[in-house]
Write a structure and sequence with these properties.
15% strand; Outer membrane efflux proteins (OEP); elongated; 432 residues; 66% helix; 5-stranded antiparallel sheet; two-stranded parallel ribbon; 9 helices
């Protein structure tokens, strides 16, 4: 069950040691745990669950006796009379209790509706957590790709430096014109600009990952250099079946339907009588002051009493109130049933799109690996020809650009594959 997964991760996060992220190399799982602990959206979703449980308690309270107490004081002044008027002072205290005996399922169905509503917001917590996990994976893979592209840019600089030295040697030997040196310097500056952009992209992706984890944007972090292992994914039909069974959106839709059905039954019970019992005990004490003896207590007594009874209440006519509420509840039930069908279509669409993206990413990796190999071979040949003095610098420049592009495309293909797997797992309702 998806909530079990979220509970486990949240439990782990409670004991996860609070360390400065810059001091520790974070794995993907570390980043996920930090996000589940820090993300405001997760905390807000948990409070929505707590609110749902509070509504359950409210609905359940009708099963218990309702006990109340009251106390009061009053004075009654009578003007005139044989003794010049009188003042009566009264002190009363009442303890009363009411208990619902039977309401033909109204309270029970209201409680069922509250419990199903809580399950609905629990599934929303699952959905939020899975969105957070996917965001972390996307940011983590993007940062990993950005770091790899820094390596690509650094290798280009090394190649450009080597070519610049070769061009200067040719120029000093008189075998190449000054143009060759100038061209190599231009390529060197272009390589440096590429490295600057690559390093800036690492900073940007670090900020994005911090945001995904709910961390301050400027927090220094270091992630593990190796590419995380990709879990095995099932075939398309199995993926669709898993999604319909596990997706929090589907489970929430089912819970919403059950809650709406329980609310409708609760409203229908308003046509039926309610049986309740009640009782009270009263303590009363009074004094009277009269005429010229005003201020002197002439009389006082204690009047205690109690009462108890059973009441059967039957609504005879309410101007269509109950009928209107039942009609509203039925319409709400039909609406959430239609919403479930919409959610089902959306879930299947996401699974099919994610699966298609995954298949495409697999193919691109194979193509990019071949392209990268050919580009490196071409660069080696161009550099060899140039060093031998038989090849132009433009040939080396073109080969370097092609090799850098091939390496960049290869890194991007690996990133796309990792992200495609993550999106497919999320579409199946499996954050991990």
């Amino acid at each position: 069950m998806q909530s079990a997964f979220i509970i486990v991760l949240l439990a782990i996060s409670l004991v996860f040691p609070v360390t400065a992220p810059g001091e520790t190399v974070l794995t993907l799982q570390d980043c996920i745990e930090l996000a589940l602990r820090n993300q405001p959206s997760i905390r807000a979703a948990r409070q929505n669950v707590n609110a749902g449980r509070g509504r359950e308690t409210q609905a359940r309270s009708s099963y218990f006796p309702q006990l109340s107490a009251s106390t009061g004081y009053s004075e009654n002044h009578v003007l005139g009379g044989a003794f010049g008027g009188s003042i009566t002072k009264s002190y009363t205290t009442t303890l009363s209790m009411d208990l619902l005996l039977y309401d033909f399922g109204r309270t029970g169905n209201a409680l069922d509706a509250a419990e199903w509503s809580t399950r609905s917001v629990e599934r929303e917590l699952d959905r939020t957590a899975q969105e957070v996990v996917l965001s972390v994976k996307q940011a983590y893979y993007a940062l990993l790709a950005a770091k790899n592209l820094v390596g690509v840019a650094e290798r280009r600089i090394e190649q450009s430096e080597s070519r610049l030295k070769q061009a200067e040697a040719f120029f000093h030997a008189g075998s190449k014109p000054r143009f060759e040196v100038t061209r190599a310097e231009v390529d060197m500056n272009s390589a440096r600009l590429g490295l600057i952009n690559a390093r800036n992209n690492v900073r940007i992706q670090t900020i994005v990952l911090n945001n995904a984890m709910g961390m301050p944007p400027g927090q220094a972090i270091e992630i593990e250099a190796r590419i995380p292992e990709v879990p095995a994914v099932p075939g398309l039909e199995e993926a669709q079946a898993e999604a319909l069974k596990n997706r929090p959106e589907m489970l929430r839709a089912e819970a919403d339907i059950e809650a709406a059905r329980a609310r409708m039954r609760a409203e229908q019970a308003n046509y039926l009588p309610t049986l309740s019992a009640g009782g009270a005990y009263n303590w009363a004490n009074g004094t009277q002051e009269m005429g010229e003896l005003n201020g002197i207590l002439l009389g006082g007594d204690v009047e205690n009493s109690w009462n108890a009874g059973v009441t059967l209440t039957l609504p005879l006519f309410q101007g269509g109130l109950t009928r209107g509420r039942v009609a509203e509840a039925k319409a709400n039930l039909l609406a959430v049933e239609v919403q479930r069908d919409t959610v089902r279509q959306t879930v299947l669409l996401e699974v099919n799109q994610s699966y298609a993206d995954l298949e495409s990413a697999k193919t691109r990796i194979s193509v990019m690996e071949s392209s990268l190999q050919k580009a490196r071979e071409s660069l080696d040949l161009a550099q060899g020809r140039y060093q031998a003095g038989v090849g132009p610098s433009l040939e080396v420049t073109d080969a370097q650009v092609a090799a850098v592009q091939a390496e960049t495309d290869h890194v991007q293909a690996q990133y796309d594959y990792q992200l495609s797997v993550a999106r497919l797992l999320k579409a199946m309702g499996k954050a991990q």
